[in-house]
Specification:
Blueprint (H helix, E strand, L loop, with lengths): L12 E6 L5 H14 L4 E5 L6 H10 L7 H13 L2 H9 L3 E5 L2 H10 L4 H5 L10 E6 L2 H6 L11 H14 L5 E4 L1
Parallel strand pairs: 1-3, 1-4, 2-3, 4-5
Bound molecules: 3'-deoxythymidine-5'-monophosphate and magnesium ion.
């Protein structure tokens, strides 16, 4: 985000990333309660946001009810972030901190794990709000799979998750906070 030179009154954009079944959802809710207890105004968000029209197309793809070209679904995931951008910006400006379960990095990691070109994957993300903090929940794909609870959605397969883990490794830089599980 342009305004990373924060004024006191701006909320923080905190993104949690990781493989399926890495524990993101519970860490997001722990962080939410913690920040709420400290008196911050904070909301929990997630991508994909399956409630919009675009989100419903994504959900139908993930639940295997529809087939889409890999590039097309990649762009839908990105469009799903773009359609929330202005709301996100106004929340942050009004001093609400957003804890976001998956963001652009999921978009790039999952699509490049399918073999799509990395730079092509990154391109539609340019101009979205930049997170203030990215937390990566680092769990081995085997351990995540052993935790159980893959729900039969597309991508929830050990062999594919191994490729996603490698993509995340490529994206991870030293601004990310890595939590090892
Ligand atoms: P959840 O399991 O968190 O509902 O995600 N995904 C997600 C992508 O491929 N691209 C994206 O841009 C995003 C945000 C990760 C459903 C799956 O969607 C994948 C898992
Ligand atoms: Mg999932």
């Amino acid at each position: 985000m342009e305004s990373n030179n924060k004024s006191d009154s701006r909320g923080a954009l905190i993104v949690l990333e990781g493989l399926d079944r890495c524990g993101k959802t519970s860490q997001c809710s722990r962080l939410l309660s913690y920040l709420e207890e400290l008196g911050h105004s904070v909301e929990s968000w997630r991508f994909p946001d399956r409630n919009t029209g675009v989100g419903q197309m994504i959900s139908s793809y993930l639940t295997q009810k529809s087939q889409l070209d890999d590039h097309a679904i990649h762009l839908l995931f990105s469009a799903n972030r773009w359609e929330k951008r202005s709301l996100m910006e106004s929340k942050l400006r009004s001093n609400t901190t957003l804890i976001v379960d998956r963001y652009s990095f999921s978009g790039v990691a999952f699509s490049s794990a399918k073999g799509l070109d990395l730079d092509w994957c990154k391109a539609p993300e340019a101009g979205l709000l930049a997170p203030d903090l990215v937390v990566y929940l680092d769990i081995s794909p085997e351990k995540a799979a052993e935790r159980g609870g893959y729900g039969g959605e597309r991508y929830e397969q050990l062999e594919f998750q191994k490729k996603v883990a490698l993509s995340y490794q490529m994206l991870c830089d030293d601004t990310w906070k890595v939590m090892i599980f």
